[in-house]
Amino acid sequence: MANISAQPATVIHEVREKKKRGVPVFVIIGFAWIAVVILIALTADWIRPYNITAFDLKNRLSLPGNAAHWLGTDELGRDVLSRLIVSIRISLLIAFGATLISAFVGTTLGFLAAYFRGVVEQIVVMLADFQAAMPFLIMALAVLAFFGSSLPLLICLMGFYGWERYARIARGLAIAASGQGYAAAVTQLGAKPAHVYIKHILPNIASTLIVSMTLTFPEIILMESSLSFLGLGVQPPMSSLGNMVGYGREYLTRAPWIMLAPSFVIMLTTLSISITGDWLRDKLDPTIG
């Protein structure tokens, strides 16, 4: 019996020792890649060699590696590197904006469910279950096909992806925090519910919500890429990573670099964010000191 009871303590001790270790190499690489991608997005207008709509018909489907076009050109002679740089900015803008909207909507609904309980809680839980059961890609295709595609609409639509996760997390943690001493003490001092939730409960659950954002962010990038690949996402003359992959699929055998360059960026970006998100989840896990 002593050996059995000692096993959980041993596991917790091992996890704590892992958390005390330095940052893993893959996490450092992930952070470095994310920093590079963000820097590219912020400086896209200054570092791109050409305008993304500039045609060079004499150098159509030019191979990568030449002095004029480092990553080659597409079927219209447009510089792949320039389009890739601008596409990174558009894709990150969509993913970042949608992640913030999703976190705000989900956290707000979760707090409302935790505060009012009863009918309000049941409605929020029902909506979360419906959202989780509804294939988001099908819903997004229907909305974009009916209303047309624009960047603001795409960001708002993607913002409804994954909100139910934040709602469940915020609801559960807010209910748990409300039963603790600090929330009850502030309430007894006369603080309004909004003040209690925003100033006291939200900072205590922020680490969990941030980790959830890092896990939702790459999913939104992939979702936007899928919609753009199908032709219902970002529309010309703008360009996104998924948009480039969609246009490059027709030239996969003759000019694979058109499709491979954005695909490589999508893969590395989503992988880097997922790795760093998992690492942050382990470091910020409130259940293990």
* Computed structural class: mainly alpha
Helix fraction bin: over 70%
Mean pLDDT over the residues: 82
Distance between the termini: 25 Å
> How big a fraction of the residues is strand?
under 5%
User: How can the largest sheet be summarized?
Assistant: none
Runs with pLDDT <50, length 5+? none
Please state the overall shape, judged from the principal axes of the Cα atoms: elongated
Number of helices: 12
DSSP strand count = 0
Order of helices and strands: HHHHHHHHHHHH
Q: In angstroms, what is the radius of gyration?
A: 23 Å
Keywords: Cell membrane, Membrane, Transmembrane, Transmembrane helix, Transport
Protein name: ABC transporter permease
Membrane topology: Multi-pass membrane protein
Transmembrane segments: 23-42, 92-116, 136-161, 209-234, 254-275
Write structural notes for this entry.
This protein is mostly helical and about 290 residues long. It has 12 helices and no strands. Helix 4 packs across helix 7 (about 150-160) and helix 11 (about 240-250) packs antiparallel against helix 12. The longest helix is centred in the middle third of the chain and has 37 residues, at about 80-115. The chain is elongated, with a radius of gyration of 23 Å. The two termini are about 25 Å apart. The mean pLDDT is about 80.
